[in-house]
Write a structure and sequence with these properties.
heterotrimer, A alpha+beta (170), B alpha/beta (995), C mainly alpha (439), A: alpha+beta, four-stranded antiparallel β-sheet, B: 995 residues, alpha/beta, seven-stranded mixed β-sheet, 28% helix, 18% strand
Chain lengths: 170, 995, 439
């Protein structure tokens, strides 16, 4: 990125305004660096049209692994001594399916968590400098960057959309 | 020895192999060493084991059970020097290899924690332990002093003993100017002996050939419990009463209290206490009456005519409460019989009434069977040597008159077992009198003595005992000494100056007895006899039955005059019990813990009252009543029981000791204490029934420690019976289905599976599929099997409190189901683990603790069990037992523990294992001989001891085995078979016949 | 009366609950802790002396330990139900109570999980139930319903805790940003540096959706598995196919009742009236009526089938339940679980907080007795009349039961004072939805 760009954070008091601003920004060459929100807002989602998350693949993988782990654990252990209980076959499908099912859920959830933290890059130990504590409360933030000469233009754009401006040059 | 061994081996070949195994390993007189009553601080390896002791292998010693006068032969199983189990001696004619529960519990006398280890001398400051030498010296001194002061200053009261010992007693007493010993037996059958004396001239107790009878009519003789020789008669009874080619003998009992014996009758008829004789007279009248097809000896008929004339059916009905119809039923049975046998009253009837009944019964037998072919007058029960009660009482009374200074008591407890025992206690505790009790326990009588000297018990000593005239049984030490106690014989011999002793030691006297009359007098003969356990069936005098003296009819008449008139006052009956006998068993945990079969109540003593009269009096089970007689009062909780004649209160004797060890003392109540102490003048028969002065509700009520939740089967296929004419075609009416009744027999074999019923295919077994057949028609509910099971499997004793909480541990229960149509009709159901092929307990265990073995057993791995108790919860038969605590086994009881069976700790589940340790032994033997296990080679403890052979064990995969044969019996069924667990315990329905 | 909520007011209401507590709070905590000690003491005594100090016997091998186990597992269910199933159904009224319900779930599972241990005869051997490799290759028996339990309950505990924690992340960030000093530091860590930037929300919403999607079948399976502890046996009164749905419905029934029992005091103490509106409570009440009817239907079905089977054992078993030694317990069960909830059909009753609270308590009692009737009432009186017996809990069992209740409330009380007991984020979502509806 050329050295002469500045990031300007527009802080909005309602998601609607933030969404409008985002829509507006996307018609301009300015780049939306980041959007902060206290809630998973649908309006903003519509405005941003982000790509679909890939967490689900982790979940699916976990589930499949889980089922086979469970089922084969049960089958393997019962075959070690091949003891007959209650006149049932040593490898009894019905009960072992239940074990498989529970393992499916367990591993799927673990996969899900793994997916979540790996995709969302959690945990994070540093909050970015331009982060505003109100973002976890009632404010929405849109961080856009532009070249120095367009700075006032962008600022004006934010203000017209009813944002308060927060700049911090890095 | 070698020659002996050959003859020995020939005999062995003629015996079945199990017997051979035992006998062969019996033998050497050398007893294993190294046992001590106190737990050792150090362990010492046995550098040189005695010749017949192989570690891990048992040695069997033949001896004789002395728990009651019957004298059954036993084989003591000795492991590493201690006896761990008693089994019947197959060669002994009285019990032929079986034992009753009292016999099983003999070990708990031997190892009883309350046993006395040292002599005790009474001093001002309580009991003081003294060495045996000192005790002996003390007795010798007292004896000499008494002898010098004059004749008759020494007297002795002993239990029934062998002739050898009795002679020795007599000799010793004579040497000290004493009189001959008094033989005291609480159940001495005075009335029966008197009847024999009157009619046949001698007070004999001949052995009855009950097995040859076809119709048996009893008037209270409890021959399955305590009467004469219970094990022997249990076997003989079932021999005549079991189903053989479509028919079985008939047994009718007429008595005030049904008792276990009456519960096994085809019909029990209640009668007013004391009026048995009247009923019998009525029957005599019927039998001796004209044109009824029986040719009665004319003289007899005339002799009896005068006596019987007044006993019309109506009169009898009025007196005894036995309806005319019932009388005719019994009469018809007797008239139709080929080999009828009539038994008189048992213990539990009043003196003179009993005499009348016994006299009448004998006459009835004469009338039915003039040559008395079922009476073996040449073979008589040993108990006949017991002195009549009157003699015993006189002896005690005489002690004051003749100022007896020294009294020797040999293992008797008259203070407890004689009504008015307090008087005897007073006599014994008289200042001037020195009383020596040769007893291993502190009981009521020993407590009154001045010196208590423990002597060797039957299983520790040399002796000979004439079980009956035809069987001289021998006793030998079956284990190393656990006490320093001498044999009574030796102790007495030592009292005499060496020159006057009939023998150097008592063992040589026994040897003499054993060898007398034998062709060869060698040590070999002696050894062989000892190994066999006695001399049986020697040829003996065979004189016919003695001539009947008809003048006895007059005696009968006088006695009949004493019969009670109908009245509605309560009568207290105190019959002896199968578990405690006269009370000597009351400190043996196995006996107390095993429920009485009829009430299903262990530990407690209950007062049984007829169900209806109890309802009428507004009493319910557990209400405590006060029973008053002239002699005193007792309190006991009542229990409704259909098998009691209205107006009778039955409190079985044996419990309620004031002093008798930790388990006996203060447990239950003692009805003997309040019985009328008077005895019949001529017969000297005591009274076991006394009219009650009053019966009052105390207002208190206690919980009955019953092990039975409900007494009816409620139409469930649990203990069904089949009428004798219905056998074979009762299941044919509907084709096999899935309902409780239509569900077919599903043996735990591939053929027991059917896709229509089973989701899963059958599973195969490896060589054997162990199973048990329980013939409920043979089970008499004597609970011998339960005792054997406790002994074999180290089962814990939980006590009254835990029983009340429902924590009993018995692996094998004799359940008792009543017939809703007639509550007095009972069916006994031996219930143990069913070793199901599809066991519900197995699948639910999270750790495989219960699982199916390759031979079909339902294994329980104690070490693996974590105590989820899911298996017990899911068992339809509720036969699994959980160790709620660590059960107590005070020293030296642990010496009895079977080393082949784990002792379970708290928190694990346990249950019947089909005696897997015995199966394993059989496997080892078979493997060494490189063959398969033979049918009948494995015998679980319960089946081994069953006097009637109700239990059969074997492999169903061997198509020729007895179990495979029996399973084809049309009576075969599985308890709750419709649950489709395919139990390996298959029951044969009890056969009922309408009489 | 309802003032309109704003993001700020939501934050403030919730954050106000995190102010330093007064002495009365600590007294309560201390009392509950004492109760826990009592329970622990009883358990120690039982381990030393033997399981016999309880009231169990032959035939009733299972007593209050398993009754409480099933009871608490049941309680644990509505939490996930509310947060997962209702989340999928987009039922708005769930948001105010979701957090508390999930918390309840987690702590209830912990409590429930204790009881199988307490129940064991040899708890020191409990690791035999875990598939731990060992040189003798001894493994647990996965055919046993108890092993299903081990797997299902541990899965459920893991999943519900993760679900709970994930849901809390945004709120933890909120607290972090409103706090200073130690609390700030702590929440900085446990909020995993949450910033609410869109990149995170994108994955978070997706992940949360899958959480809900997985928790739903899990919650159903877990209580089905619990029901199979009984249904897979042969015992009359247990061996029936309706058990799985019957137990699940029962579980939700008791769980919802427990939610009310917890939320109503919380609402008063923490002044949540604006957030937890009567509408919310009403919706819960309506659901209780529904589950109550299902449970009632199950009771009826059992009896009908028993009669229809013509099997003497089944018939007697259910006759005895209704009219035998445990008739009182049976009718308490029927009344509290089926009849009393019907009162909630009346709006007057539903909207009266006091009555609502009382009813919720009654349902809890009723559900405890349902487990008593099922567990004890069946085996005490099964196949073999000779083996019939009765059971009554011993003092030790009561001690342990008290301990368990104390443990649960102890954890819950600690939580509500130190963590956001209402999900601020989800509340804000509701507002935003409301707004969008308006606009």
């Amino acid at each position: 990125m050329p050295a002469d760009t500045v990031s300007i954070m527009g802080i909005f008091s309602s998601e609607q305004r933030a969404a409008l601003a985002i829509d507006g920004l996307r018609e301009t060459p300015w780049i939306i660096e980041q959007v902060y929100s206290p809630i998973p807002s649908h309006a903003i989602e519509h405005a941003l049209e982000p790509p679909k998350s890939r967490v689900g693949w982790f979940t699916l993988a976990g589930g499949i692994i889980g089922f086979f782990t469970g089922f084969f654990l049960a089958a393997f252990t019962s075959l070690r001594w091949s003891l007959i209980v209650g006149g049932k076959p040593v490898v009894a499908l019905v009960p072992f399916f239940i074990v498989g099912f529970e393992f499916t859920i367990l591993f799927a959830v673990l996969g899900n968590v793994l997916g979540l933290i790996s995709q969302a890059r959690l945990p994070r130990f540093e909050t970015p400098a331009h982060y505003d504590e109100r973002f976890s409360g009632d404010r929405f933030g849109v961080l856009a960057c532009c070249s120095e000469d367009e700075q006032d233009e962008l600022t004006r754009f934010f203000e017209t959309n009813g944002a308060e401006i927060k700049t911090n040059d890095v | 020895m070698s020659s002996a061994w050959e003859t020995w081996h020939e005999r062995a070949l003629r015996m079945n192999r199990r017997t051979f195994l035992k006998i062969a390993s019996m033998g050497s007189v050398a007893v294993a060493a190294g046992c001590s009553a106190k737990p050792e601080d150090n362990l010492f390896t046995m550098v040189r084991a005695t010749e017949d002791m192989v570690t891990g292998k048992e040695a069997w010693y033949a001896s004789t059970c002395r728990e009651c006068p019957a004298g059954c032969g036993v084989l003591a199983k000795n492991r590493e020097g201690r006896i761990i189990k008693l089994e019947g001696n197959h060669l002994h004619p009285v019990n032929l290899g079986t034992l009753c529960i009292r016999g099983q519990a003999a070990l708990q006398g031997l190892y009883n924690p309350d046993r006395l280890w040292m002599p005790r001398l009474k001093t001002e400051d309580g009991w003081q332990e003294i060495p045996f030498e000192k005790a002996e010296a003390l007795i010798r001194g007292k004896a000499r002093a008494a002898a010098n002061r004059g004749t008759g200053r020494i007297s002795m009261v002993t239990e029934v003993v062998g002739q050898t010992q009795l002679d020795l007693f007599a000799a010793v007493l004579q040497a000290f100017n004493g009189e001959s010993p008094i033989v005291f037996e609480p159940l001495a059958h005075e009335a029966l002996k008197f009847a024999h004396q009157q009619i046949f001239g001698s007070p004999a107790l001949p052995v009855l050939q009950m097995d040859r009878a076809d119709v048996l009519v009893g008037f209270g003789a409890d021959f399955l419990e305590t009467w004469l020789s219970p094990v022997e008669y249990a076997r003989k009874f079932k021999a005549m009463h079991m189903l053989s080619n479509g028919s079985k003998g008939v047994f009718v009992q007429v008595s005030p209290f049904q008792s276990l014996t009456g519960a096994n009758a085809d019909r029990w008829i209640g009668c007013r206490p004391g009026t048995e004789a009247a009923v019998i007279m009525g029957l005599i009248r019927t039998v001796t009456g004209d044109e009824n097809g029986r040719n009665v000896n004319r003289n007899l008929r005339d002799a009896l005519a005068v006596v019987t004339e007044t006993y019309t059916p109506e009169a009898v009905a009025r007196m005894s409460g036995v309806s005319v119809e019932d009388q005719t039923i019994v009469g018809r049975q007797l008239l139709a019989a080929k080999q009828p046998l009539v038994l008189g009253t048992g213990a539990g009837s009043a003196g003179s009434h009993a005499v009348a009944a016994e006299l009448a019964a004998l006459f009835l037998n004469l009338a039915l069977n003039p040559e008395l072919s079922l009476f073996d007058f040449n073979n008589r029960h040993r108990v006949e040597i017991a002195d009549r009660r009157s003699t015993v009482l006189d002896a005690f009374d005489a002690m004051d008159k003749k100022s007896v200074e020294l009294v020797l008591l040999n293992n008797v407890n008259p203070v407890f077992s004689i009504p008015g025992g307090s008087r005897i206690a007073k006599t014994l505790s008289h200042k001037k009198r020195f009383v020596v009790a040769f007893s291993n326990f502190m009981d009521e009588t020993a407590a009154t003595a001045d010196l208590i000297v423990p002597v060797q018990m039957a299983l520790e000593t040399w002796d000979a005992y004439e079980s009956n005239t035809a069987a001289l049984a021998t006793l030998q030490p079956t284990m190393g000494k656990i006490t320093q106690a001498p044999a009574l014989g030796d102790l007495l011999l030592n009292l005499l100056p060496p020159d006057q002793r009939p023998a150097a030691d008592y063992q040589s006297m026994v040897t003499r007895t054993v060898l007398t009359g034998q062709d060869s007098q060698t040590a070999t003969t002696w050894l062989k006899t000892i190994q066999k356990g006695g001399r049986f069936g020697d040829d003996r005098a065979t004189s016919g039955s003695p001539k009947a003296n008809l003048r006895a009819a007059a005696t009968l008449k006088t006695y009949l005059a004493t019969l009670p008139e109908p009245s509605d006052e309560y009568v207290l009956m105190a019959p002896p019990s199968i578990r405690f006998f006269d009370g000597r068993g009351a400190n043996r945990p196995w006996l107390i813990e095993t429920p009485d079969t009829l009430t299903q109540i262990p530990w407690q003593t209950t007062a049984l009252i007829n169900t209806d009269s109890m309802a009428a009096d507004g009493m319910k089970d557990g209400d405590v009543v006060t029973l008053k007689t002239q002699s005193g009062e007792i309190q006991a909780p009542v229990k409704a029981y259909a098998g009691v004649f209205p107006g009778t209160v039955v409190v079985s004797a044996g419990q309620g000791h004031s002093v008798f060890g930790r388990w006996g003392s203060g447990q239950g109540v003692n009805p003997l204490a309040i019985l009328d102490p008077s005895v019949d003048a001529d017969a000297g028969a005591p009274s076991f029934a006394t009219p009650l002065a009053s019966l009052e509700k105390s207002g208190r009520s206690v919980a009955l420690a019953t092990t039975s939740g409900h007494r009816l089967a409620l139409g469930r296929k649990i203990a069904p019976t089949v009428a004798i004419d219905q056998i074979g075609h009762q299941d044919s009416h509907d084709k096999p289905g899935l309902t409780m009744d239509s569900f077919p027999l599903t043996p735990p074999l591939p053929e027991g599976y059917d896709p229509k019923r089973d989701l899963y295919p059958p599973h195969d077994h490896d060589g054997y599929r162990w199973a048990m057949i329980v013939d409920m028609d043979r089970c008499i509910g004597c609970t011998a099997c339960v005792g054997a099971c406790y002994a074999e499997n180290n089962i814990g004793i939980v006590g009254e409190k835990r029983i009340l909480e429902g924590r009993e541990m018995a692996w094998l229960q004799i359940q008792c189901y009543q017939n809703p149509a007639d509550m007095a009709r009972l069916t006994f159901l031996p219930m143990m683990c069913q070793h199901c092929d599809n066991a519900p307990c197995e699948a639910v265990c999270p750790v495989y603790a219960p699982h199916h073995s390759k031979e079909g057993l339902n294994n329980q791995i104690y070490n693996r069990c974590i105590g989820t108790r899911f298996c017990g919860q899911n068992c339809p038969y509720k036969v699994r037992r959980f160790n709620w605590f660590d059960w107590e086994r005070p020293e030296p009881l642990p010496m009895q523990l079977n080393p082949n069976v784990t002792v379970r700790s708290k928190g694990v589940m346990e249950k019947c294992s089909f005696c897997i340790q015995r199966i394993k032994d059989a496997h080892n033997v078979a493997k060494n001989e490189n063959r398969a296990i033979r049918d009948g080679e494995v015998v679980p403890a319960c089946a081994q001891t069953c006097p009637t052979g109700a239990l059969t064990f074997g492999s169903l995969m061997d198509k020729t085995s007895r179990v495979s044969q029996l399973i084809k019996d049309p009576r075969a069924y599985q308890v709750l078979g419709y649950v489709n667990t395919k139990p390996a315990v298959i029951y044969l329905k009890k056969v009922t016949q309408t009489v | 009366m309802e003032q309109t909520l704003t993001y700020k007011s939501i934050d403030n209401t919730v954050l106000d609950t995190l102010t330093p507590p007064q002495r009365s709070y600590w007294v309560l905590v201390a009392l509950l802790f004492a109760g826990i000690l009592l329970g622990a003491g009883c358990w120690t005594y039982q381990i030393l002396v033997g399981i016999g100090v309880g009231g169990q016997n032959n035939p009733v091998f299972w007593g209050t330990y398993l009754i409480n186990f099933v009871f608490w597992v049941g309680i644990a269910h509505s939490g996930t139900l509310i947060s997962a199933i209702l989340h999928l159904f987009r039922a708005g009224w769930r948001n105010p109570i979701a957090r508390a319900a999930e918390t309840m779930t987690v702590f209830a599972v912990c409590t429930a999980g204790l009881f199988p241990f307490i129940h064991l005869g040899r708890v020191w051997m409990v690791y035999y139930m875990l598939p731990v490799p060992n040189q003798r290759t001894l493994w647990p028996n996965f055919q046993s319903p108890l092993m299903f339990d081990v797997v299902a309950i541990s899965t459920y505990l893991t999943v519900s805790s993760l679900f709970w924690y994930t849901g809390m992340l945004p709120d933890l960030a909120t607290i972090r940003d409103r706090s200073h000093g130690l609390r700030h530091k702590i929440f900085k860590v446990i909020s995993l540096g949450w910033t609410g930037e869109w990149e995170i929300w994108r994955h978070y919403t997706r992940g949360y959706l899958f959480f809900a999607a997985l928790a739903t079948p899990l919650v159903i399976s877990v209580h089905s598995v619990v029901s199979w502890d009984f249904a897979l046996s042969v015992i009359p009164g247990w061996h029936t196919t309706i058990f799985a749905p019957y137990f699940v419905a029962g579980a939700i029934h008791s769980g919802l009742a427990m939610v009310l029992t917890l939320m109503i005091p919380l609402r008063i103490i923490f002044k949540y009236e604006a957030i937890i509106t009567t509408h919310v409570l009403e919706s819960v009440a309506k659901t209780i009526v529904f589950t109550g009817l299902i449970v009632g239907f199950a009771y009826a079905t059992e009896i009908f089938i028993a009669w229809y089977s013509h099997n003497p054992v089944e018939v007697e078993s259910f006759r005895w339940r209704a009219f035998g030694d445990y008739a009182l317990e049976y009718w308490i069960m029927v009344t509290c679980n089926t009849i009393v909830p019907l009162l909630l059909l009346f709006k007057k009753v539903r909207t009266n907080i006091r009555i609502l609270f009382v009813i919720s308590l009654l349902v809890n009692v009723g559900m405890w007795y349902e487990r008593f009737v099922i567990i004890v009432g069946s085996v005490a009186h099964d196949f073999l009349p000779h083996a019939w017996g009765l059971y009554a809990p011993s003092l030790v069992e009561f001690g342990i039961m008290i301990g368990a209740f104390c443990l649960f409330f102890f954890l819950f009380v600690l939580f509500v004072k130190h963590m956001p007991s209402v999900s601020m984020t989800e509340m804000k979502e509701t507002l935003q939805e409301g707004e969008s509806h308006a606009g």
